[in-house]
């Protein structure tokens, strides 16, 4: 047999990508939680952005608190989705399997929404302020803080991509070649020719 369906292999890859999604979501949450900095206070910075001369932390912004929570929830949802996918394919009954698969798809959709929104919020750190007033120069005076926030956003986006790839591989059949030989198609008999089948 030259080629075979790699159902087991594809399932292992999907599981690995789900684990990667959990790990990346957790790393994003940890990076956001560490986004705290006491910026350098200068007279120029005080005139440009008085609020930026105080200690800056992700907890000062409700949107960044949401980003952290979204990543934690996404990691938990992916763990639940992996369990549901395993139960759905475990032969516990056709009706139960379909319900578990449908619920896993809903969980995946919720995870993607949380991850995409979290990354969007993190990448917009330059435009964030407090109480609806824009605070200019936050990333100029708190470079490390913004670097961590941007890093958290990048990890959230990577988690979303890993989840999207796992869904793609789950829905698209994958085949693996076990040897280098391809089966040659049988030559079609044309009118007037004599074919022998061995």
Along the chain, the helix and strand elements come as EHEHEHHEEHHE
Question: Biggest sheet, in brief?
Answer: 2 strands, antiparallel
Radius of gyration: 26 Å
Shape: elongated
Strand content: 5-15%
- What structural class do you assign from the helix and strand content? mainly alpha
Percentage of residues assigned to helices: 55-70%
Strand order of the largest sheet: 1-6
Number of strands: 6
Helical run tally = 6
* Uncertain runs: 1-6, 176-182
**Average pLDDT taken over every residue:** 75
What is the distance, rounded to the nearest whole angstrom, between the alpha carbons of the first and last residues?
A: 18 Å
Keywords:
mainly alpha, disordered N terminus, elongated, two-stranded antiparallel sheet, 198 residues
Question: What does this protein structure show overall?
Answer:
The chain is mainly α. Helix content is 62%, strand content 7%. The protein is built from 6 helices and 6 strands. The chain has a two-stranded antiparallel sheet. A two-stranded antiparallel ribbon has the order 2-3. Helix 1 (7-33) packs antiparallel against helix 3. The chain is elongated and about 60 Å long. The two termini are 18 Å apart.
Quick structural overview:
The protein has 6 helices and 6 strands, in the order βαβαβααββααβ.
Layout of helices and strands, plus pairs?
Layout (H helix, E strand, L loop, with lengths): L2 E3 L1 H27 L2 E2 L5 H6 L7 E2 L4 H27 L5 H30 L5 E2 L2 E2 L3 H4 L1 H29 L3 E3 L21
Antiparallel strand pairs: 1-6, 2-3, 4-5
């Amino acid at each position: 047999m030259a080629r075979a369906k790699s159902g087991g292999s594809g399932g292992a890859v999907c599981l690995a990508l789900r684990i990667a999604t959990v790990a990346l979501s957790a790393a994003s949450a940890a990076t956001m939680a560490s986004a705290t900095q006491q910026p350098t206070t200068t007279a120029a910075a005080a005139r440009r952005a008085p609020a930026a001369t105080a200690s800056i932390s992700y907890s000062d912004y409700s949107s960044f608190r949401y980003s952290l929570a979204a990543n934690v929830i996404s990691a938990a949802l992916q763990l639940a989705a992996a369990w549901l996918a395993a139960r759905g394919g475990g032969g516990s009954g056709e009706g139960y399997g379909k319900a578990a698969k449908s619920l896993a798809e809903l969980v995946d959709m919720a995870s993607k929404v949380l991850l995409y929104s979290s990354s969007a919020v993190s990448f917009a750190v330059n435009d964030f302020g407090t109480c609806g007033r824009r605070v200019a120069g936050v990333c100029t005076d708190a470079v490390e803080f913004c670097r961590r926030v941007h890093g958290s956003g990048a990890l959230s986006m990577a988690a979303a991509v890993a989840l999207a790839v796992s869904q793609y591989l789950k829905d698209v059949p994958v085949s693996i070649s076990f040897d280098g030989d391809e089966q040659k198609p049988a030559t079609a008999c044309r009118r007037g020719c004599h074919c022998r089948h061995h």
